Amino acid sequence: MLNLKIAETFRNLSQLFEIRQDNPFRTRAYERAAQAIEGLNEDIEIIAQEGRLREIPGIGEDLERKINEFIGTGKVRAYEELKKSFPDGLLELLRVPSVGPKTAKLLYDELRIQNVAGLESAIAKGKLKGIFGIKEKTIENITAGISLFKAGKERMPLSVAWQVAESFLKPLQDLPGVKKISCAGSLRRQKETIKDIDILIVSEKPQKIMHHFTSLPQVQEVIASGSTKSSVRTDDGIQVDCRVVMEKSFGAALLYFTGSKNFNIKLRQIAIRKSLKINEYGVFRGKAFVAGRKEGEIFKLLGMEYIEPELREDTGEIELARKGKLPKLITQDDLRGDLHTHSSWSDGNHTIQEMAHAAIRQGYSYIAVTDHSQGLTIANGLSVKDLLKKKREIEKVNNTLRRCKVLYGTEVDIDSQGGLDYPDEILKEFDIVIAAIHSGFKQSKEKLTHRMLKACDNKYVHIISHPTGRLWGTRNAYEIDFDAILTQAKDTNTALEINSFPLRLDLNDSHCRRAKERGVKLAINTDSHSIEHLQAARFGIAVARRGWLTSKDVLNTLPLGELLKAINK
DNA sequence: GCCGTTTTCGGCCCGACTGTTTTCAGTCG
């Protein structure tokens, strides 16, 4: 996929324009295009082949040509030309917090500073003093920015972000004077990775709240502290922003603070066309306040349905909301069971009975215990002999249960040729069969794809688990031809999994949206290895919602009887 | 450079906080 490369080219162009202080609107047009391309859930080459580039918001005649140029030649001439007039490391300077385009240009013009290393040594030699507009405090800020840049503060997984957010939400929500509190930003949109945490509070006493916020024990550094807005950094280096507004502005502020940026811009443009103005305090006609207390009333005023935070990325949701045709997103309450869990029979920590009772507490009416197959010895995979014993144990447990049924399952290994780790006579005995790749990740794209297609072909395989194999911080997704897999899954009535395990989230949101468009069913599973892991379903739900899924798109929202019929091949 | 239920030209989202140049530009979200 060239999507990210093209987006990067446009972003670099935008930043070079910014440094050159080119037409600011042209600058923004390139940045918007970069964001739009990043957010695509399709291969841009396919869009180009089908002549649909102009349908991407922010892509006009010129950028269409530049995209086609990149696809054809691997380069954009205009970018290569412009790059020549700047040193290579200049864009790097913009990634230092508190260094923006103006400062970068100033540093380059005055001191010929071309990259972060140069900036660092210039500071060490005291060369920054004396430059017009730069004094002690600015140098301090830039120095701090450099250490942040070098620390390479990465994004954190959604699950970690929730933990950090709760460590702020809990102490703040009980403070006297806090009337409402909510997280906002990409956390509220439930993106799979989060950069910083945003918190919004309703209070008549903003100063007091700000004081409490900036003095919480986990705060290591106060980056900014104003009367209604403050930013801090925690001891883990995570930035948390907090903003206090009046009650009548809560909806407007929540909308603004939740973003995404492109979503907000489009909403504000629509408002302007209706002679309205939106800011974080409300919607105004002239100077008159017309709405702002709730997000819902703002959407209504703009002539559209309420848009769930997970959809707010400006990838078509605004247009559908204006027509009243948004999908009704799946919620956690829609889930009736979990189809991928492990017990102490293989590498899980709890017995089948313990897993079943945990499922009941979760409100489920079924749980599939899908232990590993024999070849996966490292995970204590089950021999054919063990399977019989396990089956009997499940029957025994089921005899003690009334509201919940344990399904006899397996997570069968797909071998390096696409064969399965149990023969068909064994596979047909299971209530549910999940197939997954656990080795040979470095094979070619063709070979990996072939293995998956072959697994789908087996009439006893119901679900392909963690289809892209990525594991946060450990390995990237392996290369597969996802479109070919979608076609095969559809043709063979094989479902694909959204693995909710916080370090996997595999499939991801854009995979889900593509699967839904192709009519492929999904299963939201946790891959639990202990009873606590069952809670992770909320992250799979987050992925599904961001992927526009409704309960109809997801297998395990079905009652047991319908589920068993639906998976039948 | 993009875009149109006022426009194919003339607009383009909006505001808080900081530091510095004492009236505002730069950065950030």
CATH architecture of the largest domain: Alpha-Beta Barrel
How many distinct helices?
24
Examine the coordinates and then state which fold CATH places here, giving the name of the CATH topology of the largest domain: TIM Barrel
Quaternary organisation = single chain
Quantity of strands, as a count: 17
Structurally, the number of domains stands at: 4
* Unreliable sequence segments: none
Structural class: alpha/beta
How much of the sequence lies in strands comes to 5-15%
Mean pLDDT: 92
What coarse outline follows from CA principal-axis ratios? globular
Question: Considering the protein shown, what is the CATH homologous superfamily of the largest domain?
Answer: Metal-dependent hydrolases
Please render the helix and strand layout as text:
Elements: H1 3-19, H2 24-38, H3 44-49, H4 61-73, H5 77-84, H6 90-93, H7 101-111, H8 116-124, H9 136-151, E1 156-157, H10 158-173, E2 180-183, H11 185-188, E3 193-194, E4 197-202, H12 206-214, E5 219-225, E6 229-234, E7 239-245, H13 250-258, H14 261-273, E8 277-279, E9 282-285, E10 288-291, H15 295-301, H16 317-323, E11 337-341, H17 352-361, E12 366-372, H18 384-400, E13 405-413, H19 424-427, E14 432-436, H20 445-457, E15 463-464, H21 482-492, E16 495-499, H22 509-517, E17 522-525, H23 537-546, H24 560-567
Parallel strand pairs: 4-7, 11-12, 12-13, 13-14, 14-15, 15-16, 16-17
Antiparallel strand pairs: 1-3, 2-4, 5-6, 6-7, 8-9, 9-10
The protein binds one DNA strand of 29 nucleotides through helix 2, helix 4, helix 7, helix 9 and strand 6.
